[in-house]
Amino acid sequence: MSTEAVEPASKIDLAAVGGGGGEIPQFDITLRVRRYNPEVSEEAEWEDFTLTMFGTDRVLDALHKVKWEHDGSLSFRRSCAHGICGSDAMRINGRNRLACKTLLKDLDTSKPITVEAIKGLPVEKDLIVDMEPFFQSYREIMPFLVSKGHEPSGERYQSPEDRERYDDTTKCILCAACTSSCPVFWTDGQYFGPAAIVNAHRFIFDSRDDAGDMRLEILNDKEGVWRCRTTFNCTEACPRGIQVTKAIAEVKQAVLARSM
Amino acid sequence: MATTTEFVPPRSGRIDKKYNRVPGKKGNFEMVAWLFMRISGLFLVVLIFGHLITNLLVGDGINGLDFGFVAGKWADPLWQFWDLAMLWLAMLHGTNGVRTIINDYADKDRTRFWLKMVLYFATVVIVVLGTLVIFTFDPCIPGSPLEVCN
Hints:
heterodimer, A: alpha+beta, Fumarate Reductase Iron-sulfur Protein, Chain B, domain 2, five-stranded mixed beta sheet, elongated
């Protein structure tokens, strides 16, 4: 079941390539990157790169081109480059996305494409942020199975219906696109953030898990689910199409039901 | 051989201090506040539209609205209760709304504290004053044209 948002229509006219493996169209872009190097200056600044890219290229390919052919000091994280590892979340044209899942042709290439680090976390260099506060919140909600009673001799069975209950939140890749798009998190970094709540949801609604109560207690904190203002930034930012705000609302209801 | 030590989350020692969460007070205050906003919101829709309809639409409508009209309403315990409920719910609903805005937008604890103190002070003054007026309202001010006063 995929709930992923449909990508906007291409803004570049890619000529229909007739029949046998034709040429891939090329175009020029300006990549405007937010550079920051604390060893040189405390101030971050924009730097423009003009690149000739292919119609099949992604923002990550443009960053590679800069790093490999123009300026080797450009720093960013990436690992699998296929939208699964969650390393290359960044703010592209003001929106949090994965650089490896954003095709250049889907962006407005008539204007410079801005690329900056995700907000709300301390920038270490260029596009690299310190993810530690993000993982700290993640650890606090105990993202692992806790079960009481006897260890089963085989697998822990679960009906397809019970599995379906938390299916959406199993998709999280911990890229921090949601948490760093949340205005409440930007203020002071105290809020647990959407990603931690999504991963708590994944276990709270798992029929095999017995620590739901503890997780609900943790998220009933003043920095927990009640700081969510349902602005839906997280849902829009999620590269995996998780209905994040809906998951947070379900956790709110579970906290409420537990207290009644 | 290695001895078993308490589990320490990796690298958590070098986390930027501003992200360390101060353990909050136990209790359900934020949850109750969240629930209150929903419930009071529902009541306020009924109360406010009831207020607007009786004051501005029914009878002479807005042209019939004067000191005597308000005095007449407050002679009735129903309207006293109605206005009291509206005052309290609207003030608490609004105060809690502004409280969350202060929490979201002020980034220093001191600023947060003082903004909230000003807010709470203003709320208490308005609620106390409003309650006092509703219950001690005397339509017979000197030179009152109202019949009941003569």
